[in-house]
Amino acid sequence: MFIQLATFFLKRAKKLKKKSNKKGFTLVEIIVVLVILTAIAVPSVLGYVNEPKNEKYIQEARSIYSNPN
Fold first, then answer.
1. CA separation for the pair 44, 40 (Å, rounded)
2. In the predicted structure, residue 20 carries a pLDDT above the cut 60
């Protein structure tokens, strides 16, 4: 009985060891890359969103100064 259990656990340990040798990225590494890309992308996207608002304010100011009625 003990020998069977020991054999079972040794086989299971070998399978787990084989799985851990796989190459690739960990979940933490992928999350870090996504956070960095988001930190770069969000300010530039917000700049594109705010740009039309700024143009609207500039046009409004021009119309006020050109027609001082």
1. 7
2. no
